[in-house]
Fold this sequence. Notes:
Structural class: mainly alpha
Radius of gyration: 18 Å
Number of domains: 1
Oligomer: single chain
Largest sheet: none
Number of strands: 0
Helix content: over 70%
Order of helices and strands: HHHHHHH
Number of helices: 7
Amino acid sequence: MKAKKSNRFSVLYLLAAGAVLGLMVSMLGQIPALAHHELAGITTSYGYWAVISGIITVHSSRPWKAGLCCTAFFAAMVVVYYAFAWYVTGVFPWQTVLWWLILAAIGFGWGFVVWYHHQSGWLGSFVAALPLTVVAVSIWNILVLDLFTPQSGAYISLVIFGLFVIYFFIFAAQSMVQRLRMLLFTVVLTLLWQFGIASWLFDWLGTL
């Protein structure tokens, strides 16, 4: 009974935390001088989603709990973010909200799978590399596209992403060997995305 209560309050805590973050970021986005700041896009940034989900999975005791907590956090964050923006502007982008809620639902499977970074061996190293790859791609894009953009907040994002990489390598790995495997998978997956999958995807979209 105690374990169930603990699990329940963990989910409720993350629902509340997601709602608070969504409100804060939505309010930040309503300030003209900060509307295009990097931090104003936390709720719609894949890099930040990977950071948050990675931290959640590291501290989850079971794979289903990791998935449930990820979905609860992101769903609350997205709903409150766009609800406040709707209250202020009177515009509610249904398709955009639906897309991010679908991603929040997919977050259950994402959290469930990434939880298996707790395992040693190649499987644990591969799944641990998944959130690291998303963050690595975000870092790559910032360095190439956004680093010298005025008031982009790129430096803040680089610091946050860099700290997460260090944090995840320390707490998500069981040994130095696993960290080396995580690094190998992260480099390979990042290169495949940047020069393989991503290029093919954008070329295909250009033909539609």
